[in-house]
Design a protein that fits this description.
- With about 190 residues, the protein is an all-alpha fold.
- It is built from twelve helices and no strands.
Length: about 190
């Protein structure tokens, strides 16, 4: 099966139609819900980033992700750290209804780098259980950061993300998790007997 090659004009038009259809700023996962729109990874590969694709198409950026600048994010993070007395977990950050860990990753490259900017390391509680959607969002964000579908060795190198075993156990397998996140596995498994 060969990959479909889309023109820049087609990609821009598809994004504009999706924006008109939804009537709100777009997020990467919106592309997963419509078969007539190429996946967000296609946009990242062709335009260099999701943000650049949206700007090229003339679509406003999602204020939940892009409505912050670096200093605003660091100020907010320092306030949260002061309240908790430690670095927040990704789940705690989500519950506070402020900027998400994904927003921090969008601005700083990853969550750990944002924490390092305020002199902290991620809180790693042994009992923390990641939600399925949280793990899928992490895979999407990592793919966005890397510019390609991540591999387990790339994930092992990251101290700001759970170990691949967490993804495998919670999502029913590495490739299955990637597919559910809307990503194409780089090393698909061949079926038995083939």
């Amino acid at each position: 099966m060969t990959k479909k090659k889309f023109t820049r004009e087609y990609l821009i038009e598809a994004l504009q139609k999706l924006y008109e259809r939804l009537g709100r700023p777009l997020i990467q996962s919106d592309t997963h819900d419509y078969t007539d729109v190429p996946g967000h990874v296609t946009y990242i590969r062709r335009f260099g980033s999701w943000r650049e694709a949206l700007q090229t198409a003339g679509i406003p950026l999602d204020p939940a992700t892009w409505g912050y600048d670096r200093e605003m994010l660091l100020t907010y993070l320092r306030d949260v750290v002061e309240r908790l007395g430690r670095a927040p977990t990704i789940k705690e950050l989500k519950e506070l209804e402020g900027p998400s860990a994904y927003t921090y990753a969008s601005h700083f490259g990853n969550w750990t780098t944002a924490l390092a900017e305020v002199g902290l390391k991620p809180h790693r509680g042994r009992k923390y259980i990641y939600e399925r959607e949280e793990l899928l969002d992490m895979l999407r964000a990592l793919a966005n950061e890397l510019g390609h579908t991540p591999t387990t060795p790339e994930l092992v190198e990251r101290d700001d993300l759970p170990h691949p075993t967490t993804f495998i156990q919670r999502l029913g397998g590495w490739n299955k998790g990637l597919e559910e996140a809307g990503l194409t596995p780089r090393y698909p498994r061949k079926g038995r007997g083939t």
